[in-house]
Amino acid sequence: MSRIDERFAACRAAGRPAFVAYLTAGDPSPARTVAACLELERGGADVIELGVPFSDPIADGPVIQRASERALARGTTLAGVLDLVRRARAAGLGLPVVLFSYLNPLLRFGLRELPAAARAAGCDGALVTDLPPEEAGAWIAACRAAELDTVFLAAPTSPPERLAAIADASRGFVYAVSRTGVTGEQVALSDDARPLVERLRAGGKPVALGFGIATPEQVAAAGAVADGVVVGSALVRFLEEHPEGDLAERVRWLRSATETPR
Amino acid sequence: MSDPGFFGEWGGRYVPETLVAPLDELEAAWRAAREDEGFLREYRRLLREYVGRPTALTFAERLSAELGLSLWLKREDLCHTGAHKINNALGQALLVKRLGKRRVVAETGAGQHGVATATACALLGLECVVYMGAEDMARQAPNVLRMRLLGADVRAVDGGSRTLKDAINEAMRDWVTNVRTTHYLLGSALGPHPFPTMVREFHAVIGEEAKAQFAAGPGGLPDLLVACVGGGSNAIGLFHAFLGDPVACVGVEAGGRSDAAGEHAARFAGGGAAPGVLHGTRTYLLQDAAGNVLPTHSVSAGLDYPAIGPEHAHLRDTGRVRYERVRDGEALAAFARLGRTEGILPALESAHAVAWVIREAAALRGKRIVLNLSGRGDKDLATVAAAFEAGP
């Protein structure tokens, strides 16, 4: 079992959804990202997704676009992100870490070289936003060899046969995109979310629901549907507004409506 | 590789999952349409009665005499809306009707594709949103007004380099959000499959006409075809009908101010390009050592793009097409020269192709050349005036 598998299993045993926290690596600074990871763990997050900043983030809304621009302006690269993970591990980070990247930085690094390098740095999994499973053959093989979990996205537009293939290619968990659109906070959970998660569950792997989840009520609602809840833009925006704010406190607040075991 | 989405190792469909099924749906609709006589009849009727095809093949008599060669211009500038872009915009807009969608988003650089899309949407009664980089809106102001008069909602894109690449980013974000009701009417032979092939097919009429016109007029085949290459739609449209013939092809990229990173948009002939993925396709991409896309510069907004259509990447690898670059100043000089010798003001994009012929004239002596004059230059008057005021 990978560290991600273990986490989801432990959450299930405890009768609560896993809290998956996304941050853009290098925003507002590399040092802050290392500290932020430790705060997320202290606040009770279960999995950390670390976004690799990219110049053309077509799947991201304005909050993560701005974070990516700030991180790039500070010189953050994929190699630099791996170094941040290494530093966070050295500082005692125990949570599973999933790299969240667009394809091009990985290609430039070397698609065959990256999984082993990421694993050595202390990463547990990777999700590539613009790499659907049918284009991912070489990537999956390299990740399997390095024992790096491959997380794939499932969308409300994905037909049943694709959902099966996505679940099949995924390790650790499957990331269900709650609605059509880019990342960013929304006022309510989309009607698309529940049926998508239910169809994905047939694959037998844990399903984390993300995109647009920003308040304790939404975390609770998503957690009632899925095995895990991803909060991204809301945390990135918190750091944008309070660069030195306490993320541990923020995670506790976001989880505050999710008290009752399912 | 036999996968229809690939040209050799280039192309593919590298998109967020949300877009995969809609691209499958688009591909199925397009494959059905291209076999449907009714669809083709309507498309050809619009090209004839609305666009004004076939466009002329004009012998550039005075410039040819000055250069010591024989140059014909394929006059896409005479298309309704002033550029070749309308061929593809109308084809895709007809597909939108078949898909049962009501809303279209598009990107535009020089504004030519935006105008063509706004026009096709007005003609067919579709809602139209055009994303355009804020810098491009400033340098192509007449086309912004034109799109708005045609009923399009033109939205300024302030992110990144505020040019074509960023307009595509924003159009893709709109599309992924509204994909159930909205078609992305991509304007060049790039992006995820099936766009590179579909856009090429809608523009293949350029080369088919040119081939027939050349055979009927001067006779036989030309020695050489020349076209400018941004994403590469006008070039592939001209070249495609000739790829099986003994005719040389040259694509001319935007060399900008210099070969330094950020100063040009020459993916092949400049420096800084490596295989990469941008906007859903694997191709040559101007990028830094960490895989971030480099800024580009060209005096011509339509060529100011860091990647190139995947079929061009393949044609370059196989050596079937040669790619060269021309600097801003050479393009501006060619713009003026074609005006004085032929009474034709070309788009600054097309002026790059003219500039290459002028520069290489000694080596091209006696050759019979067909150049794709992909658009007219009215939209560029402010840019040209500012450049000539500033001096060389």
How does this structure look, described?
- The complex is a heterodimer of chains A (262) and B (392).
- Chain A is α/β, with parallel strands linked by helices.
- Chain A contains twelve helices and nine strands.
- Chain A has helices spanning 3-14, 30-43, 62-73, 78-90, 103-109, 114-121, 137-146, 160-169, 193-201, 216-225, 233-241, 247-254; strands at 18-24, 47-51, 97-101, 125-128, 149-151, 153-154, 174-177, 207-210, 228-231.
- A nine-stranded parallel beta sheet of chain A has the order 5-4-3-2-1-9-8-7-6.
- Chain B has two domains: 7-47 and 85-195, Rossmann fold (3-Layer(aba) Sandwich), CATH 3.40.50; 52-82 and 204-390, Rossmann fold (3-Layer(aba) Sandwich), CATH 3.40.50.1100.
- In chain B, the strands form four sheets. A six-stranded mixed beta sheet of chain B has the order 3-4-14-9-10-13, sandwiched between helices. In chain B, strands 7-6-5-8 form a four-stranded parallel beta sheet, sandwiched between helices.
- In chain B, α5 (112-124) links the parallel β5 and β6 (127-133).
- In chain B, α12 (328-342) crosses α13 (348-359).
- The longest helix of chain B has 22 residues, at 195-216.
- The chains are: A alpha/beta (262), B alpha/beta (392).
- Chains A and B meet through α5 and β6 of A and α1, α8 and β11 of B.
Features of this protein?
heterodimer, A: 262 residues, TIM Barrel, nine-stranded parallel beta sheet, 12 helices, B: 392 residues, Rossmann fold, six-stranded mixed beta sheet
